[in-house]
């Protein structure tokens, strides 16, 4: 003999009363807002990090006290490239973080002649530099070792960078600057 379980009755649509419909809509809104908030928190904790720029070494691209988002996840999927603006722990004091532009990647030969950067004997095109922030100093040719990067600030005559303290190890680089959000007048992607 076969036994059949009775199906539970279908609760059907929400009650049609005006107050009940409003309560149902409010619950739906709260659920959606809570879900969006939880996703945003996840993204901020694990993918992007808000950072405040301190100092003038990356002018005019980034200015003192500007707020940016740093993508902390990107370098799990792609290599660090020449031209990337990266945030890293300062090699001489790992309690401080710096932001600079990658000029030399592993295997590159980097040389600076009277302020002009040459990578692998080719003059580097640097449209982000402005004349008043250039300097005319030279730097002997160096070969970037495996797992290390040569970084420079865009404001060359006031930047503390690889010319002073050497290469940055890949394990010290924790993200790429991707978007400026404050002040609103500077809103947009970090190139």
Describe the protein in words.
By secondary structure, the chain is an alpha+beta fold. It has one domain: Umud Fragment, subunit A (Ribbon), CATH 2.10.109. Helices cover 17% and strands 30% of the residues. A hairpin with a 2-residue loop joins β5 (109-113) and β6 (116-119).
Mean pLDDT: 88
* The CATH top-level class label: Mainly Beta
Domain count: the total is: 1
Number of helices: 2
Shape: elongated
- SSE-based structural type: alpha+beta
| Strand tally | 12
> Termini distance?
74 Å
Using the coordinates shown, work out and report the CATH topology.
Umud Fragment, subunit A
Give the proportion of residues in helices. Answer: 10-25%
Could you name the CATH homologous superfamily? Umud Fragment, subunit A
Strand content: 25-35%
Q: List low-pLDDT spans.
A: 1-5
The CATH architecture name reads Ribbon
């Amino acid at each position: 003999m076969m036994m059949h379980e009775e199906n539970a009755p279908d609760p059907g649509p929400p009650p049609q009363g005006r107050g009940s419909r409003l309560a149902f809509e409010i619950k739906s809104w709260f659920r959606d807002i809570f879900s969006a908030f939880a996703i945003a928190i996840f993204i901020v904790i694990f993918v992007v990090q808000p950072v405040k720029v301190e100092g003038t070494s990356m002018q005019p691209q980034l200015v003192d006290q500007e707020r940016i988002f740093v993508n902390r996840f990107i370098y799990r999927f792609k290599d660090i490239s020449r031209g990337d603006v990266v945030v890293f722990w300062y090699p001489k004091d790992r309690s401080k973080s710096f932001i600079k532009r990658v000029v030399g990647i592993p295997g590159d030969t980097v040389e600076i002649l009277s302020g002009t950067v040459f990578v692998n004997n080719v003059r580097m095109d640097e449209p982000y530099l402005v004349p008043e922030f250039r300097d005319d100093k030279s730097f002997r040719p160096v070969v970037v070792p495996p797992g290390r990067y040569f970084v420079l600030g865009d404001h060359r005559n006031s930047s503390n960078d690889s010319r002073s303290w050497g290469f940055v190890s890949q394990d010290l680089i924790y993200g790429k600057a991707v978007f400026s959000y404050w002040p609103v007048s500077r809103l947009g992607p970090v190139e």
